[in-house]
Structure formats: structure tokens, C-alpha cells
Amino acid sequence: MKNMNQPLVLVVVALAITPVRAQELTPISSITNATWVQYSTEYQQSPLCSKEEITLWSCEAGKRVYSLCSSHIVTRTSGYIQYRASSRGKIVFTHPTERQPPLGSFFYNSFGNGNASVEFTSNGYGYTLFDPLREGSSIIVSAPPPSRKKTVIKCGGNQTLQVNYTMRLMYDSGVWAGY
């Protein structure tokens, strides 16, 4: 019995004295070094974003337009990302209401299959801008409890949430989940 406990004690002691370092994750260099000049032709201008802004994502559904607009440079402390929705050409909703760095307001996800999404919450409603690599984009709006009813707004093809410059902005601003 004594010999069986000894290896376990050694393993526990070894684990206790081994320093544990957090591994810093960074995207590949083609993302971290991406520039606006390299990728500017990938983005189509939305009527909801000014000419000085980047239209990171946009959706037209009926008489409504939904867009994710940003400054050209976004970090954890400067620049901004803002979601805007319009009806018949008039902006009816913005998130956040003020132009501010996006950390804490948005979450970006990039999936292994090439899909990407941006998520945020406003007044208890959850919003997901879903941009699959091989299908049309959509917006999923989830009502607050108790109903939690989901509404899906279908959009056309988009694929701008997977552009390397978009990914760089999401990383630099601290909203990319997992980084």
C-alpha cells in the first residue's frame, strides 16, 4: 500500500511547484497585420454608415437596412463600432447610442467552418449578426425572458465579418471571443 501512494504524492508535489503561465493567444499574422488599404475593396458602403466609416456588415430586408459601422482604426481605448437600423431611410435604433470603443458592447466569434458572428444585448434583447461563409447572412433577435422568442431576419450574402481587416479590428478592440 505504501508504494502505491508514493507516486501520487510525487505527481501532486510536481504539479504544485510547476509554474503555470497563461498562454497568450494571437491570430495569425495575415490578420494582425491586415490593413485597410489591402482590404478596402471587400467592403460595400451602407447608406447608414458615413463615407468616413467602414461598413463592416450590412443587411437589407424589405424597407429596412441594418448595418455595423466603424471607424477605420478601433482599439480597446479608441475608435468605435456601432450597429444601426433604419426603416424607410430613417435611423430608428443604434447600439451603443454613443460612438465609443466596442469593448463590453460587442462580442465577435469566428468559427472553424468559416462562419462568423457579432453579438450584443440592448434593453434585454439579444442580437446576433450571423455571417455564414457559404450562405446568406441573418440577424437573430432574441426577446428577453420569459418569452425568449427568436425572430430571424434573412439577409443576402455578405461575408464581410470574415475579412481579415474586420477580424483585425475585432481583435485589436478586444471583442473577439477567445482572444
Molecular structure report:
With 179 residues, the protein is α+β, with helices and mostly antiparallel strands. The protein has one domain. Helix content is 18%, strand content 31%. The strands form two sheets. It has a five-stranded antiparallel β-sheet with strand order 5-6-7-8-9, with no helix packed on it. A four-stranded antiparallel β-sheet has the order 1-2-3-4, with no helix packed on it. Strand 8 and strand 9 (150-154) form a beta hairpin. Mean pLDDT is 86; it is low at 7-23.
- The strand order across the widest sheet is 5-6-7-8-9
Which parts are unreliable, with pLDDT below 50 for 5 consecutive residues or more? 7-23
Q: How many strand units?
A: 9
* Class based on secondary structure composition and strand pairing: alpha+beta
Helix fraction bin: 10-25%
- The total tally of domains equals 1
Key features?
31% strand; five-stranded antiparallel sheet; four-stranded antiparallel sheet; 18% helix; alpha+beta
Summarize the structure.
With 179 residues, this protein is an alpha+beta fold. It has helices at residues 2-17, 29-32, 36-39, 164-172; strands at residues 54-61, 64-70, 81-87, 90-95, 107-110, 116-122, 125-131, 138-142, 150-154. The protein has four helices and nine strands.
